[in-house]
């Protein structure tokens, strides 16, 4: 199986304790991969290291693909200022800046691409709105549209469902599934453990060090979850209790 | 001619300040203008001590460097995470300004370099200092310098529009696209720093802050696009300069104070009367919504009861009779309820049919 992203001995430190420690992993091509771990586990750092926008202390990152920008990144919604004076269409068009030369302005083609991407996330009628007037779910959708116009083959998303209602979550996951069907690799940071099995076919369990990575059926086990989060999940706790009772009897 | 020069200097200075102010404001760094306008002082004084010539271009260079040092120190202090960003800025610029003042009092007692002039600037004197090269006059020096800054700033904004916008909004994406956000930010801050220094002689530190903050802040309430923000702030800046210099002539004072006053006045007017985001528009919208909610409440009460008397309804809602009557009349006019007897109301056929669907 060929990989979309491979890291070897990847270590990242922001000056203190390493945020990522010696991480070796392969994310298979055309997979829907979840990055799971507690707060401060280095999930966002891993995405940024893959993008190459933060310095590495050691190790390497290989990204498959031949395009100019093979990776499109959807940051956490809260990383930008939504009061910035710009419109929805403008924000989506920013995704095309990567393929333009220095000082070149986006033209008709870029505009059409942005409108098509808005269509994909069903936000066309909001094109001329100021970005601050949108709800959290709508903001997430236009961020997704901005990633689409980058014409990448790998999509990295940082908590796309944070602060988003159930209806939008369903819409976004549908869009991501379609995106994968059309030959792309999807990787995203996720927090809700109850939906892991239905959303992903591949997971990365991370807590500064790599705990385990592989197909969701093999890797997403009670023991691994406990090791990752440092606490027992509900069902594991139940199992332990039942086992304990068995011993007493 | 003298008045025309003053007006031109005022207009060009305020437009270039407004454009720089927009770039700071959308980055939520409006107070950097306050810092810059003070932190350039030690640079000015130190250069003056060496060259002993108030017109030397070295003064501008040294002062601009001084401004950059302020920005850099503030960012360094912010990065430690030990000081709030605002507090860091306050500490650095106040410290640098005090060093400047100290140098002025210690070294330059007998020189034309008064603290008053530093804080207020002196626009009335500016037109008297003409730039002459080879016997030919090129107009007041201040006008030439400020026009040069305007051309530089506008060219930068026009040429690097896309790079600038992405750096301001999402530096991480700019970095990913290799659009050098760090470099763009450096150039931006250098231009703002240079503008501040150039405007220093003419406008003084307080007017610079007024010109960099008030027009952009007002424009931000009127528009939702970066390009329009620059245009609208420039228009407000021109307006404040015209009104300011006119008023100054009428009451025979330096234009600086009136210009700052007009910039503030325009901001206040916009804050109150901006069509969508102004305070008044907000109040009207909120009243309209309150009215709608009241209508809805009454309609639901009557629908639920089938038929209800006005006093009962008032007790139910805990409203005064006159408040209730106003809503009832409005609903009756709209045709959604009708009066059965003197004070008994019921839902009209039409709205019964509508709610039936």
Q: What is the count of distinct domains of chain A?
A: 2
Q: Output the CATH class name of the largest domain in chain B.
A: Mainly Alpha
List low-confidence stretches of chain B: none
In angstroms, what separates the terminal alpha carbons of chain B? 76 Å
Helix run count of chain B:
15
What structural class do the secondary elements of chain A suggest?
alpha/beta
Tally of strands of chain A? 9
* Biggest contact: A-B, 27 and 26 residues
Major β-sheet annotation of chain B? 3 strands, antiparallel
As laid out across the biggest beta sheet of chain B, the strand order is: 3-5-4
3D shape of chain B = elongated
CATH class group of the largest domain in chain A: Alpha Beta
End-to-end separation of chain A: 49 Å
What does this structure look like?
- The complex is a heterodimer of chains A (249) and B (357).
- Chain A has helices at residues 43-51, 88-93, 108-120, 136-148, 166-181, 196-199, 216-219, 222-229, 234-248, and strands at residues 3-13, 18-28, 32-36, 58-63, 71-74, 154-157, 185-189, 202-207, 209-215.
- With 249 residues, chain A is an alpha/beta fold.
- Chain A folds into 2 domains: 3-65 and 153-248, Rossmann fold; 83-151, no CATH class.
- The model of chain A has no long low-confidence stretch (mean pLDDT 88).
- Chain B has 357 residues and is mainly alpha-helical.
- Chain B has a 3-stranded antiparallel β-sheet with strand order 3-5-4. In chain B, strands 1-2 form a two-stranded antiparallel ribbon.
- In chain B, helix 1 (2-25) crosses helix 9 (181-220).
- Chain B is elongated and about 95 Å long.
- Chain B folds into 2 domains: 2-217, ABC transporter involved in vitamin B12 uptake, BtuC (Orthogonal Bundle); 282-356, Orthogonal Bundle (Arc Repressor Mutant, subunit A).
- Classes of the chains: A alpha/beta (249), B mainly alpha (357).
